[in-house]
């Protein structure tokens, strides 16, 4: 029998791998509902749904390897990064899903959330005040009206799989919905600024690089405390804290 490997686990959800099957256990069935619905709609390669018995969703592994990892240099070619950009463009040009994204809110709500998070980061001594202040200023460019598209919502670099220069699968669709296209592109290139031009070359026109860089700061500021509280290390080399420091 294949060993059971814990891919990720915290108080909200866990993902296990047994051979070529991934088992996602989630306390929030709305997330699983969104994932199953998105998998049926998106025009890009995705995992096959094998079965669902709440709170568990079973998915087949996709071929290939992750485009990269946060905090590590990517071994994928510039062509593979461009192919990822082209796949994201196909997603963003797909018809809008009937539900809204779980993460993104209107500019006023997002600004209020960011202000509150910045206060907590400084008050609890998680990040230095000057680092937070500088990145709060950079992040302002992302807080603007945007036209919704079909977004992945959590397009981390290790959620995109490639074989050679071809995208073979995009995984983890639980945050999918209507959202900001540039948030997806920023999440994909977070910590991999050297591949931003490759992604944009595959994605095509309509990309504001200043907004992507703003999303790097905004996403990192909003994520650091959650990561710490759930047992992750955002201060590891190349991860969120380094992203924030690079804006200085």
Automatic annotation (TrEMBL):
Residues 30-207 form the Aminoglycoside phosphotransferase domain. It comes from the Bacteria. InterPro entries: AGP_Transferase (IPR051678), Aminoglycoside_PTrfase (IPR002575), Kinase-like_dom_sf (IPR011009). It holds the Pfam family APH. SUPFAM superfamilies: Protein kinase-like (PK-like). This is Aminoglycoside phosphotransferase. It comes from Actinacidiphila bryophytorum.
């Amino acid at each position: 029998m294949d060993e059971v490997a814990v891919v990720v686990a915290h108080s909200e959800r866990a993902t296990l791998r047994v051979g070529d099957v991934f088992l996602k256990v989630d306390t929030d069935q709305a997330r699983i509902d969104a994932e199953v619905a998105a998998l049926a709609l998106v025009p890009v390669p995705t995992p096959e749904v094998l079965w669902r018995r709440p709170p568990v969703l079973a998915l087949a592994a996709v071929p290939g390897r992750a485009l990269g990892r946060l905090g590590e240099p990517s071994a994928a070619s510039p062509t593979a990064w461009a192919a990822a950009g082209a796949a994201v463009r196909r997603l963003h040009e797909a018809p809008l899903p009937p539900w809204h994204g779980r993460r993104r809110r209107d500019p006023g709500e997002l600004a209020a959330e960011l202000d509150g998070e910045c206060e907590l980061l400084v008050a609890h001594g998680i990040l230095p005040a000057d680092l937070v202040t500088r990145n709060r200023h950079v992040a302002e460019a992302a807080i603007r009206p945007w036209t919704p598209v079909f977004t992945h919502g959590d397009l981390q670099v290790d959620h995109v799989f490639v074989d050679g220069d071809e995208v073979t699968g995009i995984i983890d669709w639980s945050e999918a919905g209507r959202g900001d296209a540039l948030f997806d592109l920023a999440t994909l290139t977070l910590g991999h600024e050297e591949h931003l031009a490759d992604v944009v070359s595959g994605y095509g026109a309509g990309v504001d690089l200043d907004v992507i860089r703003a999303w790097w700061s905004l996403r990192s500021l909003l994520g650091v405390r959650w990561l710490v509280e759930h047992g992750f290390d955002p201060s590891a080399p190349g991860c969120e804290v380094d992203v924030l420091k690079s804006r200085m």
